[in-house]
Task: structure prediction
Amino acid sequence: MRVMVTGGSGFIGSAVCRLLCVDGMAVVNVDKLTYAANPRSLDTISNDPNYAFERADVCERGAIDAIFSKYSPTAVVHLAAESHVDRSITGAAAFINTNVIGSFQLLEAARYYYSRLTPDRRAQFRFVHVSTDEVYGSLGEKGRFFEDTPYQPSSPYSASKAASDHLAHAWFRTYGLPVIVSNCSNNYGPYQFPEKLIPLIILNAIEGKQLPVYGQGSNIRDWLYVDDHAEGLIALLRRGRPGEKYNFGGDCERTNLAVVELICDILDRTVPGPHLRRSLIRFVTDRPGHDQRYAIDASKAHRELGWTPRNTFEDGIERTIDWYLENRAWWEPSRAKVYKGERLGLAEA
Ligand code: NAD
Result:
């Protein structure tokens, strides 16, 4: 089995590539290497004969056709995307290009490739389209997202992902491409670019910098350890039913403030600083259109895929903090050159 992973130099994509290689499967990682990519995330597999890398933009149909024909993949796991909500507020164009147009071009390239496969290889082929729970919009105090929850995206990011989910499903209904859509809650773990909440807070807290918390920190996310998500996506390749959607979540709701305070307390215990880290917390202007609460019902994935997350939030966050402490060479260049921690996404004209 050879899997084409798009966005394999990003946070979740690199976890999928590493896990596929450990499982002895061949991988071709197709990545444009945007600011969010870090080739060092693949250091542990870059010399594995089962691993190949192609630098390409999913919007470039000719390049993607050539990669399909060079590698003849058995499956595609499509993760390439612009992924940061705050950046989508400041500049939506890249999100529309990659997430909507790029997904369309990839689906078309996959359809062309699939139509020329032998019946045996067609029966095996899968296209896993990786999406987010943010397409469902915001929850109040009660309730959870199910696979049939109507879409109500709030941000340019989630709207672009919603558009691509609809395209992916239409390519199944109209053309019979064996597409499976996954909608996952917020991921955290090693190798996450330090613009997202958890790595930003860990690194600022390590360096004794202020810890920005949007609004009152009351927004709730349902956190999932990244390797648990990667296992879920591989389970989808093996046991997911084409044409179906599957929700993944950690059953682990926390307010943003509780997450930040936990990170402070763990770092105070492991690497004590001159002051308690909670004193670095600063409440800052909220994100425009900030969704209040996300919570996933993942019972379909438990039931049909036999998938359950292995990591509790408390274990996963300790492991994540240890990883950032031990892997400065991975994050220091990004912090110095790519993103220094400045505020993004305030929707100024
Ligand atoms: P990321 O930003 O860390 O990585 C994205 C990768 O895609 C990068 O390596 C980047 O270079 C690549 N890329 C971007 N544009 C490209 C293009 N035009 N062509 C080829 N490659 C391109 O993102 P992530 O957090 O790993 O998310 C991966 C996927 O999972 C995304 O589709 C995202 O919407 C989805 N998702 C993320 C989360 C989360 O919490 N991070 C949760 C649910 C779903």
Summary: Residues 6-7, 9-13, 31-34, 36-37, 57-59, 79-83, 98, 102, 130-132, 161, 184, 186-187, 193 surround nicotinamide-adenine-dinucleotide (CB under 6 Å). The chain has a mean pLDDT of 97.
